[in-house]
Write a structure and sequence with these properties.
CATH class: Alpha Beta
Number of domains: 1
Number of strands: 11
Strand content: 5-15%
Distance between the termini: 39 Å
Number of helices: 14
Structural class: alpha/beta
Radius of gyration: 19 Å
Helix content: 40-55%
CATH architecture: 3-Layer(aba) Sandwich
């Protein structure tokens, strides 16, 4: 399986090598100057290099987003993809696309997905290989991965074929995750993603409160909203249980390599997006290349 991906990954750019040096140097010095919501053992500073590099160089970065189902990996990975200029590859989307197709794996997936089980490494690697091949044909080189790797075996396969520059681990308390997942809706016509959950949890015992406003659809989408078949309470709880069981070794895998940035989401997109950019030292870069907040 690894060989299939190896042929699709291009050589690393200077930005990737520079980011790794930054992570290694700051980890060695024990730097940990950030306060919540981000907690990383490495002080990351990508901004100066990004501001000097063109789209071609930026396209070579290799980043990964980790986090529980429903935490918002896709939202933030997509925004960074637009900001930096690299493709966002979400393995969850690859699975759903395969489900909707008549491809060779489509018959195996419905039972796995609808019961909240993890899709096997073999299937995920196959789908990812196909996506990378399509990207290579279009001239893509780098990526921001979302939803992969989820297991140590997947992390080891990925490590064997490319150097990951940065792993961003998004964190959110489980009761909020459950409410968010149950509030997710998709417009059956335009495919837009929305969330009806209105979360307002007061802080207690020294823990901060969290407010997340609903992400409501425009009026013309309201009557066309549908719920994902796997967004039921039982299935979401099972997904969270499985993820937590598998995630600790993967987090430690990247933490031990000085590549893990742990980011506690302080609220919804308006509160979290600027703080995530600050944690990545990309806030000035965002000012110059603005995208919709």
């Amino acid at each position: 399986m690894a060989a299939a991906i190896t042929r699709l990954v291009r050589p690393k750019s200077s930005i990737a090598r520079w980011a790794r040096r930054c992570l290694s140097a700051s980890a060695a010095s024990g730097a940990n100057s950030h306060t919540p919501p981000y907690n990383n053992s490495s002080a990351i500073n990508l901004k100066p290099q990004l501001s000097r590099k063109g789209q071609e160089e930026n396209g070579n970065i290799h980043w990964v987003f980790l986090g529980c189902p429903g935490v918002g990996k896709g939202t933030y990975a997509s925004r960074l993809s637009t900001l930096i200029g690299v493709p966002h590859i979400a393995t969850g989307d690859l699975v759903r696309e395969e489900l909707a197709s008549s491809g060779p794996l489509s018959a195996q997936l419905p039972e796995i997905v609808n019961q909240g089980k993890l899709v096997s490494d073999e299937i995920i690697i196959s789908l990812l290989s196909k996506r990378l091949a399509a990207g290579k044909a279009k001239g893509e080189s780098g990526f921001i991965l979302d939803g992969f790797p989820r297991t140590i075996r997947q992390a080891e396969i990925l490590e064997g074929v490319t150097d990951i520059d940065l792993v961003i681990n998004l964190k959110l308390r489980e009761d909020v995750l459950l409410e968010k997942c149950l509030g997710r809706r998709i417009c059956s016509q335009c495919g837009g993603n929305f969330n009806l959950a209105s979360i307002d949890i007061k802080g207690e015992n020294g823990s901060p409160g969290i407010i997340m406003a609903p992400l409501l659809p425009p009026a013309h989408c309201m009557s066309k909203l549908i719920t994902r078949s796997d967004d039921t309470e039982a299935v979401v709880k099972e997904r969270l249980r499985l993820y937590n069981e598998k995630s600790q070794p993967v987090e430690e895998f990247y933490r031990s390599r000085g590549k893990l940035l742990e980011f506690d989401l302080p609220g919804g997109i308006p509160e979290s997006w600027p703080k995530l950019l600050q944690a990545l030292n990309l806030d000035d870069y965002d000012d110059k290349h603005s995208i919709a907040a």
